[in-house]
Known about the structure:
401 residues; alpha/beta; Rossmann fold; five-stranded parallel sheet; 13 helices; 19 strands; binds cytidine-5'-triphosphate
Amino acid sequence: MTLLGRELILGVGGGISAYKSADLLRRLQDVGFAVTVIPTRASLNFVGPATWEALSGRPVNQNLWENVHEVPHIKSARQANLIVIAPATADLIAKISGGIADDLLTNVVSAASCPIVLVPAMHPEMWLSAANQENIAKLRSRGILVIEPDEGRMTGDDFGVGRYPEVSRIISEVSSFAEIKSDLLGKKVLITAGGTREAIDPVRFIGNHSSGKQGYAIAIAARNRGAQVVLISANSSLQDPPGVEVIKVSSASQMQESLAKEFTDSQILVMAAAVADARPLSLSQEKIKKGNLENIELQLNPDLLKELGAIRGKNQVLVAFAAETESIGDATIQAARTKMLNKGADLIFLNDVSNGAIFGEDKTSGILIDNNGKSIECKLQGKDTLADLLLDSALDKLGIS
Ligand code: CTP
């Protein structure tokens, strides 16, 4: 199962090794997870909520009876893409295996449909006890990943199996369990989406039918692969994807301003937005009477991609889109190739949008053209599938795939 998002709940049980979960939290953030901590009441004897709030950058709630109107356990359970409980005490393991839900964490676990990982840590006698081993077997049979504890020194003079595992082993087991692709980790991906609107007067604008679905799908795919994602969104009604920085703009000149701020430190730019080619020469403060509409003078907008293509560095990859109403053939492919080279882009996706196809839909088709002369034909497929293909090709261009 590949995770569709990176919202993670870190449950912390009441064991002395709870402090090690502070390091685990950091490492989970390093592989791209946005972490919300839910400590059990017992665990607060070892590590207080201030530590979890400071490290996660999020408020910490451990009480089922706070903010009841928001039904927090169901809300958290639905938002989570993965739950990791570390340390998982014998008591927590028994509760989860028996379906007991008597605090916020165990309620969230029993309501969750996402994958769950338990990281047990306890004294060897407790780990090896018949009840605990039976509970572990039951949890594993339900598809929960229970990571084997390490062997070593315990608190006091004890030695044996039951130690909190090395954090690097936890990260690697969690990553392979959840099939996390982290090939964009440490990369900034800048994406434009939607369609710009150029105001004519207080009620009218020049615009287009772009819904933003393709750009949003690329933003979500990049986030899922560990990237830092900035999405410049023009007039899309789609919801902000969690874990993505969304900058809302309306006109081409606002998009240009945001691109100027965000482009330099980005490794990949995907210009999925439909930028209006022209805007009125002047914006009328009053609604223009219909008799005067024929006199509106237009001026061309700057070509935002071309401007960035002219100042780009070698370590940046630029991806363009071209929406054409003529059916795709040699001439349109050649025109798209010329458009890509002219704008200084590395890749261009040529969309066939004739007869209203593609705009606002969840599926897309076209040809991905590369500045090396290669091209890939993409039959009708989900915009999320195309998003991953574009990111694969962009990484290939960066020399990282
Ligand atoms: N683009 C841009 N700035 C513009 C127009 C387009 O950055 N003013 C970008 C789009 O986001 C897209 C690519 O350029 O990634 C191609 O857009 P398209 O509208 O097909 O290109 P145009 O240069 O406007 O060409 P045409 O004359 O065919 O409309």
